[in-house]
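pls design
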């Protein structure tokens, strides 16, 4: 499956638009505890623990979006957008949402 943030794929022709597909991942309250426990990992202003959790959430969201595209008969997703939001009463949860257009390319 080809995934891209661009509206077209160089060298491929979009033959059919299958529809908008999404993927969502929400990391619960333990994420915040894990973040503060991992704060000691900060080196040079970066937290390896925090980045690892964000990357896993993004990868899970992308995988879910790809699976939905496959169910529609697509072999690519174009125009992908990735959003990160804090949610919940105390912003104790993080949501990663991906969206794009499922297409059939040759």
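designed seq:
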């Amino acid at each position: 499956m080809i995934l891209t943030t661009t509206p077209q794929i160089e060298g491929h022709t979009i033959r059919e638009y299958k529809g908008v597909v999404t993927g969502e991942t929400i990391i619960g309250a333990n994420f915040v505890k894990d973040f503060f426990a991992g704060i000691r990992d900060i080196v040079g202003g970066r937290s390896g623990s925090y980045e690892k959790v964000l990357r896993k959430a993004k990868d899970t969201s992308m995988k879910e979006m790809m699976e939905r595209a496959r169910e529609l008969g697509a072999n690519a997703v174009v125009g992908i957008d990735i959003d990160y939001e804090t949610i919940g009463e105390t912003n104790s949860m993080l949501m990663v949402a991906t969206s794009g257009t499922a297409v059939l390319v040759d």
